[in-house]
Amino acid sequence: MQNGILPLWKEKGMTSHDCVFKLRKILKMKRIGHTGTLDPSVEGVLPICLGESTKVAEYLTNAGKIYEAEVTIGASTTTEDADGEVVDYNDAQKQFSRQDILLALAQLTGTIEQTPPMYSAVKVNGKKLYEYARAGITVDRPSRQVNIYELSLLSEESMFSGERVSFRIRVSCSKGTYIRTLAVQIGEKLGFPAHMSQLVRTASGTFKANSCFTLKQVQDLVDQNVLEENLFDLDYALEDMPKFEVPSDFEKAIQNGQVLDTIEALHSHERIVFTRNGQAVAVYVKHPSKEGKMKPEKMFNRLPKEGDAE
């Protein structure tokens, strides 16, 4: 069975689950997980975790993302993107200077509030919002804070005018950011209805577009028997966490997943990684109820078992 992280380029027309389904057939294995849903109309970077690496999928899901999007001013839709029905339209001639748009983007950079769109997988009372939306039911959605680390204008015009005005942006943001909602918010800053008319995810965590493979390319790698050398080790998902080599007298305790006395690094970091020969063997976090203790959050099958030859 393959183990590692496969940087996939998700093509338009497929859900993230479709990609996993197709990869299970190509790789002839079941233990595969994706690292964050991309809508069918969106293409881009979608790291896929194989085998033992599925244990680190949540860390990749929680990593920051970079997108390139097109915002269209002049109409809003039910889904906040180009797939929805138009619900508000303004056909007046519009004119924005480059500075007008840059000011709107600056106002939405940093920590901002977003209300998840009705057509989303966020759950309210145990039911996904899109299930309410399809039934024609609108429910109150809790707003949440997200971080927009960088929001830049890619279009180079000095003036933007017309009944509908479109421009391209690049967004570096935290997990949970809805770019289509951000497009609507940009429209609000400019005084008109708006929607996201196109979206590409260009980076997910440390994975970039230039390191990704399409499903066809994955099939080619399998046919050539070179897939394994193109996978990233699960340690790649733990790069930002402090690392500590396991002392020999701690090996058995960590191998057994024991609660241990906490270490100084957990006072300033959410997680720490124990390694052996540079490879992660366990992720530890503060114990939720035992003061001064830490417990394993993830364990990886890399420490030698008793009786194993070194």
From TrEMBL:
Task: List the top taxonomic levels of the source.
Answer: Bacteria, Bacillati, Bacillota, Bacilli, Bacillales
Has UniProt tagged this entry with the keyword tRNA processing?
yes
Q: Which residues form the Pseudouridine synthase II N-terminal domain?
A: 24-179
Question: In what residue span(s) does the tRNA pseudouridylate synthase B C-terminal domain sit?
Answer: 180-238
Residue positions of the active site: D39
- Molecular function GO labels: tRNA pseudouridine(55) synthase activity
Q: Which gene encodes it?
A: truB
Q: What is this protein called?
A: tRNA pseudouridine synthase B
Q: Name one Pfam family in it.
A: TruB_C_2
Principal EC category: isomerase
Catalytic activity of the protein: uridine(55) in tRNA = pseudouridine(55) in tRNA
Question: What is the stated purpose of this protein?
Answer: Responsible for synthesis of pseudouridine from uracil-55 in the psi GC loop of transfer RNAs.
Q: Which UniProt keywords apply?
A: Isomerase, tRNA processing
> Do you know which InterPro entries this protein is assigned to?
PsdUridine_synth_cat_dom_sf, PsdUridine_synth_N, tRNA_psdUridine_synth_TruB, TruB_C
Which superkingdom?
Bacteria
Q: Which family does it belong to?
A: Belongs to the pseudouridine synthase TruB family. Type 1 subfamily.
